[in-house]
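Here is the promised in-class demo. Please do not try to memorize the tokens; focus on the logic of going from shape to residues.
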């Protein structure tokens, strides 16, 4: 299927794409329809199989090889842009979108978990500590019933220059919990730390929590994600941890619906001036984004 207009709805953030060079192909097999017919071809270090005249895949296999130096930087930058966009949309789709009561939205909390133990420098050791913290926090808030453990979050590990790992976490539906309680829950999962010259008091960890009402938080964690992509010690590892029950962005491909939505949003809700760019997959693209109030409702006829 094809469309000349697409919308992505991520909570209050609504993005519009107009494809002016050629229609966007979407649906099953859409990404394969523009590939070469017959033989195999290389793309960013992967070998892909052949396609027949109908654009259907005959056979496909992927073999990893060393990415050529001239394409490696482009590959990395494209990965950063794609992951950053996914992160921004996931955060926006969940920021102040979970109800605390029938009329009140949860306030997003920004939590930093610091490991003061200089021996814990590798994610193989630190990731289980973060997982245990989330499990204990769920138990503290929701009790022992596994079905009620429903903290919704996104976490990004960050390695500082001295190698120490921090975890930056957005919690979208956490009720009020004192910082002292969070500190105790975090430290209760850490092994006893022996005092050292660099850590004379044997401090096991530090918790910092802040309430984030501004929508700018949607861009805040993205900078950590971007830095992590350039960290060679994180190569091949998960760059961020999304919980299972996150709300997901919604793609809208019906042209009449997209045009109706865009024409219904007042211009004062623009997040930034519209821009145009070129995509090797889509050609020339016009991009516009809006940030609408929570009171706006979205249906099949637009907003």
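The designed amino acids, position by position:
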């Amino acid at each position: 299927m094809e469309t000349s207009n697409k919308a992505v709805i991520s909570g209050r953030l609504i993005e519009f794409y107009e494809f002016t060079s050629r229609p966007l192909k979407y649906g099953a097999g859409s990404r394969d329809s523009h590939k070469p017919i017959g033989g195999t071809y290389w793309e960013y270090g992967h070998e892909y199989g052949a396609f027949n005249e109908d654009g259907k895949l005959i056979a496909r296999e992927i073999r990893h090889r060393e990415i050529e130096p001239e394409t490696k930087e482009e590959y990395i930058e494209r990965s950063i842009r794609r992951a950053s966009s996914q992160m921004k949309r996931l955060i926006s789709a969940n920021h102040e979108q979970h109800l605390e009561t029938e009329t009140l939205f949860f306030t997003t909390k920004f939590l930093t978990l610091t490991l003061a133990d200089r021996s814990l420098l590798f994610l193989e050791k630190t990731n289980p500590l973060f997982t245990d913290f989330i499990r204990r926090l769920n138990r503290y808030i929701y009790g022992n019933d596994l079905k009620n453990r429903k903290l919704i979050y996104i976490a990004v590990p960050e390695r500082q220059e001295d190698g120490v790992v921090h975890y930056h976490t957005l919690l979208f539906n956490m009720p009020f919990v004192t910082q002292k309680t969070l500190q105790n829950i975090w430290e209760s999962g850490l092994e006893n730390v022996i005092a050292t010259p660099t850590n004379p008091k044997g401090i096991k960890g530090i918790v910092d929590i802040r309430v984030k009402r501004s929508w700018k938080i949607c861009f805040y964690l993205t900078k950590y994600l971007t830095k992590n992509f350039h960290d060679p010690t994180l190569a091949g590892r998960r760059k961020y941890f999304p919980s299972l029950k996150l709300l997901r962005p919604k793609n809208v491909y019906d042209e009449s619906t997209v045009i109706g939505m865009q024409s219904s949003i007042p211009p004062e809700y623009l997040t930034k001036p519209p821009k145009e760019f070129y995509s090797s997959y889509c050609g020339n693209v016009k991009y516009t984004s809006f940030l609408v109030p929570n009171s706006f409702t979205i249906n099949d006829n637009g907003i």
